[in-house]
Design goal:
Elements: E1 5-13, E2 19-25, E3 36-37, E4 40-42, H1 49-61, E5 64-77, E6 82-94, E7 103-110, H2 124-136
Parallel strand pairs: 1-6
Antiparallel strand pairs: 1-4, 2-3, 2-7, 5-6
């Protein structure tokens, strides 16, 4: 039997200086402990993906965000599912970063320094390709 496809969403939250928010997965997580990622998570059945992203960002960081564009999409395989990952660019509307138990650290990182972090293995290449696109478009 083929693995089901699941939709996951991530927010590339950019500040005025062009830095993005990275959060590090804590030991409370089943997978990818100690690795850095953009905030986000699974889309619940029947849930709009933008609503899911806004909800996940608030749950993980306490930030209220608005979506400003598409960062891109990729896919990867997990033990029980194929994951389609949709990444959207976002801006903080209000709030300071307060992490949930799923994460134990947060950093605003210049895009050009993203490669210096231990990024989640399944999406590391995608994240670095996003940075290259932004830099080549003059957004860095």
């Amino acid at each position: 039997m083929a693995k089901p496809f699941k939709l996951s969403v991530r927010a590339v939250i950019l500040d005025e200086q062009g830095q993005c928010l990275l959060i590090r997965r804590s030991s409370a997580c089943k997978n990818f402990v100690g690795q850095w990622e953009w905030p986000g998570g699974k889309v619940d059945p029947g849930e709009d993906f933008v609503a899911a992203l806004v909800r996940e960002v608030r749950e993980e960081t306490s930030l209220a965000v608005e979506i400003s564009g598409l960062a891109g999409a990729t896919q990867y395989e997990m033990a029980k599912a194929n994951v389609i990952l949709l990444c959207l660019e976002a801006r903080r509307i209000v709030g300071e970063v307060h992490l949930s138990d799923e994460h134990d650290d947060a950093e605003w990182v210049p895009l050009a320094q993203l490669h210096q972090h231990s990024l989640t293995d399944q999406v590391r290449t995608f994240m670095l390709e996003y940075v290259q696109r932004r830099v080549s478009e003059g957004h860095e």
